Amino acid sequence: MAAKAIKFRGRLSFPITTQRAANFTQPAESFDPERLTLLYVLNESGNGGWYPIGAAQTWHNGIHLSVPAGTPVRTIARGTIIAARLSTAVSKEKFEFGTASFVLIKHTLDVLENPEEPDHNAWTSRAVEFYSLYMHVDLTPENSADVPWFQTFLPFLKENTCSGDILAKINVAEDGRTKNEKTGLNCRTAPVKKGKKLTPGTFVAVIPRGTIVEVSNEAEEEWKRVNVPSMNLTGVWVYGEGNRLVEVKEFEDQLQAFQSEGCAKLNYPVESGEIIGHVGVIRPAQLSRAEFSDVFGLHLELFAAKNIIHPQDMKAWTLVEDDTDDDIVCEFQALTKKVQKPGVMAKLGWDTSEFASVSEISTYYKTMGDADKKWLRGMITRNTSYWSIDWDKMTKSNDGWTKEFECSERDVTIANQYMWWEECEKIGVDLPSRTGGKALVYHYHPFTLMKYIHDHLPPSPIFYVKRGNEELVVGRPPDINIAATERVWVYEPGATDWLLGRGAALQGCQGIGNFGETTLYEALIKPASTPAVPTLGSASRHIWASIWHSEGCLEALNTYDSAFLSFGPFQQTVGAGTGEGELQGALYHIKNANAALFKKLFGNFKLDVASVKKIQNLDKGHFTLDGKELKSVADKEILRDFIWAYRCVKAMQNEGFRRLFLEYGFKRLEVVQAISAKVGGKEVLLGDVYRMEASLALLVDAHINLPALVDSSNGIWVKAAKSALNIGAADAIDPTTITRDQEYKMIAKIVELRNLSNMWDPAPRAAFILLCAKDLDDAVAKKFGYTDLDDLKTATGLENVKLAKEYMYGFLEHTR
Amino acid sequence: MVSWNIPGRLVLRIGRLALGFFWAFTALAQNHELVPPGLETLQIKSEADFVEEWAKENGWEDSQESLRSYLKTELKVKDPKLGTVRLCRLANAAQPRGGEQTLVLLQKNQHGLFLFSPVARQEPPTPDYKQTVVPTRLQTICPTQGSGRFLLLEVQEEVQEHDQSSDTIHTTRELFGYAFVNSAAPFVRCVAYRIPLKVTRLVNGNIQESFALQIRFPDRKHFEILKKSSRLTPGQEQWIGKTTIED
């Protein structure tokens, strides 16, 4: 067993929302195969931009998705923005075919060759490298306030901010502090010359370290005049000696490219689902000839230098790689007869013997049968990238096509404005290398490729540890460094990573533990904001809250001891050795109360409970996994796998489960109150003898730790009562005559008897419970059997006794 | 969520030097690890910063008064070669179930303050068991021959288990040894982690059986682990033998 190095953060997101009633604040949507049909139809029923052949019977290597203006465009996977371009607004005169802005992202993801394999140690993975192009994206500064990657550029792209000055980054924290404690450089009004001496001007603001400023060539000795567009400051002065200001040439080049509507080489890491722009105007050439009106949408294109589909998976795909010339025309005669379905291609490809009109092609896409749809969606075309085409050359070498589509010189000029491949190559963007001078790449229907990648990603949840800069996939305790208390994190697509637990070992067993964060006091008294905590009566609530120090947190988890797995505040376990466990009893209760919920949280994962029976008044049983009863130590070991700790935590996050689980645990108070004993020949109930919340809390605490201490014919509650009431061995207890002072005495005796017992840490446990008492002072502490309040505080075992006052919560009643 | 590890931001990693030593030792292991992976010595800025980071990482109360109460020195040794070495306990008794407690080794010398963590951990009790971890001895040892300096730490770990049905308590008491050596690096480096020097089993406080090892340091390049009792546990058997310490 070992931790495995796999890039597992490959989750995919939809580039646009699939919600029909979307608003612009719609969060990122994780890729969901169930919603694919809608998106395929959105493209195929549109007025152009079909895959893989467009209305003009050229290869169209991406898809158009028509959505309302302003819809955020999101990355389909994590990657790096390697290039982008900003274009001015669309007009009849310029960029007639739509917004020329684009964002290009390079992705490298690990996919599994055996995604069905449940054991991460047996996974075999391979890296796939591909590009996603988002064309016709609106990146105008006024619409880009929510585009993270663009924020650094925005202050410099507003009108009248192009000063032509040198750009530099504030590199020091030499003087001043901002309110938020970020250090930076003071800026001031112009320095004033007094005689030979230069005196600094008046303080204006602190420019935080990292801010990019425009540095003019105006200077006075080491003082430099700067503009700070991000702070709306113009003409302020900073002391620019040494490396206080560092030129940022790369940023300057990028900015200049954006300002001149050229391509910028970038290196911005982005996460899956991150907004990279908004949909802009999209208008296929053929449609632009009609009335000039804005249509909004996105052109999404996925391509790769090498075919990223595994050879064994190719049976579900059709590879068309014969059209390797340097135009973009999908010629029927030269190529399309070779493919499996020449009939389909004849309808779409360009055929000099049988011209098809735009409307015929449109009708075909809208009416084609399921088999044709599947075939076209699964086509991989290796052809020269559309974005590398020289349209002058293209039209000259394809006279027939040019004539048929009435491609004018103006059209050619406009079309060339949209190309970017060659320009990006020139500025060093990391694009696939050319083959024989041609930008030949493999193109995929974006959604079909996304589904393929989705189906081959490591299945979530992923458990991982961090070692150095690596994130390694783990599945069970032997995979992690226990001695170093390595932490196990959970990765789930679409959610923030969270800590499952940290490595621990005890009794020769290894696993993970998590202490949790919500104590019973916090859950029940203050702030009592945890949802789905059962409503308890006042006394029950107080009693359980007072045991906060003895019990675990709501989220507590432990798989490192001999009891295999326990979770929740009551620490119910699977049971050490071959014994039955209380945890199974609790889950049995939930299964009976809400079978569907149990099925959803555990049953669907083949975990069930069996052989549940009453042992010492508590329901205990065994688990079954995939039908096999987990009785032996060897069989129970599987419950230390991180997936089961995860299932428990997820269950506890479910409000229905939490309510039932806690309800069941809280019933223990009733069990304790119902304990009876024959004293002096007369049956008496614990709950009748003890009426104070304080005494019941001490007894419940003792019962949880050591049931026999309370639940026996000579339990401590009987001994304490006899002692406090001063009754003989043959005398009965009459609960109706017990006074408040007598119960105080019983409390003092219970504390004493607990301290003499085999309970774990009885003194601090009792002290923390009694610190919760209402109106606690020296007198009350004395009634509880302590010398004074300080004596009670000392019993907590706190290193600094003064800190005990923090835990004097003052809610636990001590009246009968 | 609460976490337990050493705060990352605070530490200045000793990096390759320590890692190099670490691999040298794991390579020597025969059928068990002398020092488990992932344990590193770290240089820290100050105790106060370390405790504050620890408290924040673990969700502990971080008032100055509380922070001052979390780190307690339990054993200390001063040595002209090693500086001051302390075995300290990080604990917050106000945590539910007494919280988890961690023993750490701090070394202060002219090169700075160094931390080896965790030496051992005391897990909070459950109704079934209670663990107690107590450091019992910290001493510097000169090898029998030649120069050099070893540091031997002994920590007693006891786990008591309730047998609820018979109201008996089964106890396993283990005395673990940790050997550190003075090295070319500015800190002592661990060469043997958790040697089970003594294992004792008790029922209701009465000793049932006991197994023991002894450790010798013949010279600065070696340590040797020998049988001290006629019978040993399988875990102890693995440690028997002489180990060469490589530079």
Features:
heterodimer; A: 816 residues; alpha+beta; twelve-stranded mixed beta sheet; 35 strands; 28% helix; B: 247 residues; mainly beta; seven-stranded antiparallel beta sheet; six-stranded antiparallel beta sheet; 4 helices; 13 strands; flat; disordered N terminus
- Rg of chain A computed from alpha carbons, rounded to a whole number of angstroms: 36 Å
Which sequence of SSEs, written as H and E, runs from N to C of chain B? Answer: EHEHHEEEEEEEEEEHE
Q: Describe the largest sheet of chain B.
A: 7 strands, antiparallel
Mean pLDDT of chain A: 90
Q: What value does the Rg of chain B take, in angstroms?
A: 19 Å
The biggest sheet of chain A, with number of strands, parallel, antiparallel or mixed sense and barrel status, is: 12 strands, mixed
Shape of chain A: elongated
Structural description of this entry:
By secondary structure, chain A is of the alpha+beta class. Chain A is built from 28 helices and 35 strands. The radius of gyration of chain A is 36 Å and the shape is elongated. Chain B is mostly beta strands and 247 residues long. Classes of the chains: A alpha+beta (816), B mainly beta (247).
How would you summarize what this structure contains?
The complex is a heterodimer of chains A (816) and B (247). Chain A has 816 residues and is α+β, with helices and mostly antiparallel strands.
Give the secondary structure arrangement, pairings included.
The complex is a heterodimer of chains A (816) and B (247).
Chain A: E1 4-5, H1 36-44, E2 62-66, E3 72-74, E4 79-85, E5 102-112, E6 125-135, E7 137-138, H2 154-157, E8 166-170, E9 184-188, E10 192-194, E11 197-199, E12 203-208, E13 212-220, E14 223-228, E15 233-239, E16 245-247, H3 249-259, E17 263-270, E18 275-281, H4 285-288, E19 296-304, E20 318-320, H5 342-348, H6 358-367, H7 370-377, E21 379-384, H8 391-397, H9 399-404, H10 409-418, H11 421-426, E22 440-444, H12 446-456, E23 462-467, E24 470-474, E25 487-491, E26 498-506, E27 509-514, H13 520-524, H14 538-546, E28 557-558, E29 566-567, E30 572-573, H15 582-593, H16 595-601, E31 607-615, E32 618-625, E33 628-630, H17 633-636, H18 642-653, H19 655-666, H20 668-673, E34 676-679, E35 682-685, H21 686-689, H22 693-705, H23 707-710, H24 716-725, H25 740-756, H26 762-771, H27 778-783, H28 789-794
Parallel strand pairs in A: 20-21
Antiparallel strand pairs in A: 1-24, 2-19, 3-18, 4-5, 4-17, 5-6, 6-19, 7-18, 8-13, 8-16, 9-12, 10-11, 13-14, 14-15, 18-19, 19-22, 21-22, 23-24, 23-25, 25-26, 26-27, 27-28, 28-29, 29-30, 31-32, 32-33, 34-35
Helix pairs in contact in A: 14-22, 15-16, 15-19, 22-25, 22-26, 24-25
Chain B: E1 12-13, H1 16-28, E2 41-44, H2 47-58, H3 64-70, E3 71-79, E4 83-90, E5 101-109, E6 112-122, E7 129-141, E8 150-163, E9 168-181, E10 189-203, E11 206-219, E12 222-227, H4 234-237, E13 241-244
